Amino acid sequence: MSAAEERGRVILAALDGTPVAGAALRVARGMADLLGGTLHVVHVTPGRLSPKEVRRRLALGDEELLGAVIESEEGEPAEATARLARKARPSLVVIGRRAQRPPEEGALGAMAEGILAATAAPLVLVPPSPGTGPYSVRRALLPQDGTPAMAAAIGPAAHLASCAGAELTVLYVAARGGPPQERGAMSAPRYVDQPQHEWPEWVREFLARTACGCPDLDPARLRFVMAHGDPGEEILRHVRDLRIDLVALGWKGSLAPARARVLRRVVAESPCPVLVARAAEEGGRARA
Amino acid sequence: MRAERQERGGRSPVGGSPSRLVEPTLDPGWLLVEGGFELAREHEVESLFACGNGTCGVRAALPERTSFSEPATWVAGVYGRPPGVDVPVLASLPDWTRVAVRVGDLDLAIERGTPIEHRRILDMRQGVFFLEWRHRDPAGRVTRVRGVRLASLADRHLLYQSLSLTPENYSGRVRADARVAGAPLAPVGWAPSIGVHEAGVVGSRAVVALAVADRLEREAGAPEGPGGWIPAGGVVEGDVGIESTRRLDRLVSVSSSREGPSPGARASRRLERSVREGIPSVVAAHAAAWAARWEDADVEVLGDDGATRALRFAAYHLVSAANPQDERVSIPARALTGPAYLGHVFWDTEVFMLPFFVFTHPPSARALLMYRWHTLDAARARARAMGYRGALYAWESADTGEEVTPPSVVDPEGRRVRIRNGELEQHVSAAVAFGAWQYAQVADDEEFLAGPGAEILLETARFWASRAVRGEDGLYHVLEAIGPDEYHEAVDDNAYTNGMARWNLRKGLEVLDWLRGRSPDRLGVLEERLGLGGEEPAAWGEIAGAMYDGLDPASGVIEQFRGYFGLEPIDLAAHEPRSAPMDVLLGAERTRRSQVIKQADVVQLVHLLWDELPPRVREASFRYYEPRCGHGSSLSPPVHAVVAARIGDAELAARYFRQTAEIDLADNMGNAAGGVHAAALGGLWQAAVMGFGGLRATASGLAISPRLPPGWRRLRFVARWRGARTVFCIGPGEVRVDVSGARGLRVGLDGGPSVAARPGRGYRAAAVDGGFGAWREVRG
Question: What is the ipTM metric for this complex?
Answer without folding.
Answer: 0.94
